[in-house]
Design brief:
11 helices; 12 strands; alpha/beta; eight-stranded mixed beta sheet; four-stranded antiparallel beta sheet; 350 residues; single chain
């Protein structure tokens, strides 16, 4: 049984009513080629390696980890912006369950109305040659929804919803600040009334004061429209604020998956210990007593990941002959608390 088989099996084969999305054994590899004209594949970058998780309706699942661990690749495979190498992405829409990874044609087009994404960089994700009205209305045009006047009215409504003036509709992206541009991106994502949204580090490019405003906006929209979020970030303080459950990724694998409070108060994976020990605490006395867990070495290359546990090359608890040989299963050690480690240990880091 693989490291995610136990988790996938525990969830069952049917998609419960309270689950909107389930990922089973998702794999994404990018080929490494050599040659100019006759490209020969000489290897592959294993960006996502056999991961499984589910997202419940109305919740926010936080996906955290170091840069390059596969967070954004996972999100893009879920949305079929990238073609998965293998695996299932089951999505509940209008009472039916569809495998996005295998959907084609009209079925995929229909599902795309239910799933949207807000990108990380508000400066790069908006077309500088298009007005705000054109940007926000583009999903409506692509899917042939409404008349020209109805789309104009919808754009004004969406701009008001995200805290911008409808009078801004005829301006261009360069006339707005970073926070305002991200609000435009959110308005565009809401245009088709989606039920599920991927938020790919939506505040990492913004000032701290603006981050709070955008996060509060996202929470208000979730409550108002009943949205479900996959929230990707590397800022653990932000993830703790907005997420209901958190999945920790390392080198294409899920290391730990748990309820937010359980993960932050009772982390079990050594990698989670190290990540959480780096989160600053706004109390100088407590911060002075804390001990940072510094990991040695660099992240291995995803083109040549280590055998056994992906984390064993940097793990302070590794055991020779076990961690470097056997791949740890993702096991449920406490109710709804899943850990992929041979020697898990509860360690308070706050």
């Amino acid at each position: 049984m693989t490291d995610t088989a136990r988790y996938a099996a525990a969830q069952g084969t049917e998609l419960p009513e309270n689950v909107i999305l389930r990922v089973n054994h998702l794999v994404k590899e990018f080929p490494i080629t050599r040659g100019v004209f006759f490209k020969k594949q000489i290897g592959s970058v294993k960006a996502v390696s056999d991961i499984s998780f589910e997202i419940r309706r109305g919740e926010t699942l936080g996906l955290v980890g170091e840069s390059g661990c596969g967070k954004s690749t996972t999100a893009r495979c879920v949305l079929r912006l990238l073609e998965p190498t293998s695996g299932e992405v089951l999505f509940r829409t209008n009472g039916e369950v569809v495998d996005i990874a295998g959907a084609e044609g009209d079925t995929l087009r229909r599902i795309r109305r239910e799933m949207q994404i807000v990108f990380q960089d508000p400066y790069a994700s908006l077309n500088p040659r298009m007005t705000v009205a054109s940007i926000v209305a583009e999903p409506l045009v692509v899917h042939g929804i409404g008349t020209k006047q109805e789309r104009t009215d919808r754009v004004k409504e969406l701009l008001s919803v995200v805290g911008l003036s409808p009078e801004h509709a005829n301006r261009y992206p360069h006339e707005f600040s970073g926070g305002q541009r991200q609000r435009i991106g959110v308005a565009r994502a809401l245009a088709l009334n989606p039920s599920f949204m991927v938020l790919d580090e939506p505040v990492s490019a913004l000032d701290v004061s603006i981050q709070a405003q955008v996060l509060n906006l996202l929470e208000d929209l979730q409550e108002e429209f009943g949205l479900t979020y996959l929230f990707i970030a590397h800022d653990l303080s932000v993830v703790r604020h907005i997420s209901d459950r958190v999945a920790v990724m390392y080198l294409g694998k899920i290391a730990e998956l748990a309820d937010r409070d359980a993960l932050y108060e009772r982390p079990m994976h050594p990698y989670s210990h190290a990540l959480l020990s780096a989160v600053p605490i706004p109390d100088p006395d407590v911060e002075a007593r804390r001990k940072r867990i510094l990991l040695e070495g660099d992240i291995p290359s995803p083109a040549n990941p280590p055998q056994g546990c992906r984390f064993h090359t940097r793990c302070p608890k590794k055991q020779e002959g076990v961690c470097d040989v056997e791949v740890p299963e993702l096991r449920e050690l406490e109710p709804d608390h899943w850990v992929a480690c041979h020697f898990p240990e509860v360690k308070k880091v706050f």
